[in-house]
Amino acid sequence: NPIGTIRVWNSNILLSDQSNTVVWSTSITEESERSPIVAELLNEGNLVLRQSNNKDGGNKVLWQSFDFPTNTLLPGMKLGWKLRTGRYSFLTSWKNLTDPSSGEFTYQIEAARRTRGFPALFLWSGRSKVKRVSPWDGVVSLGVPRNQPLTYITFTLTANKEEVSFSFQTSDSKYTSRLTLTSVQQLMWNETSLKWDLLWHSVAEECDIYGICGPYSYCDILMACKCMQGFEPKDQEAWALENKGDGCVRKTPLSCSDDKFSRLINIKLPDTTEAFLDWEVGLN
């Protein structure tokens, strides 16, 4: 229904259709003080519901849209956990280009909080991981194309007792950018053409698919799965038929006296969400 009404009533924002039936609300249940309630769209795109001139002399925020992202991440919005409240924010794709109801894909920051794992960003299809866009080490994201340096965009990973989150900011107010979930895309507004320019996107080529080659293997630039040095396909017949999800196994049993480390270059780190991490140790 293209006709609707948005209003503030009883300390909530209500969206109603043409028959005045409420189809969505902010659903705030806490008691509010007897002070004016204001809904305001801020310059950065955040819709804020707040008390005006409360007893503390401030503007208490009751609700803000930045806490509830849909398919778009704007500068200043955060994906991840608020650890004290348990709130978890992530992107959800639209059902299709004209239907904004929840679609198949989600884009989430993940870490096993109890083991203090290293956070990473994942693209999910239902309950299946499709692509790992990071890990993020606070300087570079291993999932963002390095041939497209985004010098005017700063990515931030925050991990402390309050939150585990991912966000970005533009370094100059003349730049307007957004990250959207169709595939994962970073867009920049072009003031000349008045259109959104595509900066980068995570195309799901075969090597981008999460765990495509299975354990102890890697996917090379020719989009072919290969076993690491000292390993062989677990199922030779399936491997020959390009069904390589079972991965590789050792050619010889593990021997702590003879084994050694091998250097692998230009390869993403393994999934780090279940790893133990010492946050006191920096990159230096």
UniProtKB/TrEMBL annotation:
SUPFAM superfamilies recorded: alpha-D-mannose-specific plant lectins
Any matching Pfam family: S_locus_glycop
Coiled-coil features, chain-numbered ranges: none
Domain Bulb-type lectin: 1-62
KW Cell membrane (keyword) present: no
Superkingdom per UniProt: Eukaryota
GO biological process assignments: recognition of pollen
Matching PROSITE patterns: BULB_LECTIN
Matches recorded under InterPro entries: Bulb-type_lectin_dom, Bulb-type_lectin_dom_sf, S_locus_glycoprot_dom
Keywords for the protein's UniProt record, in alphabetical order: Disulfide bond, Glycoprotein, Kinase, Lectin, Signal, Transferase
GO molecular function: ATP binding; carbohydrate binding; kinase activity
Protein's name according to its UniProt entry: S-related kinase 7
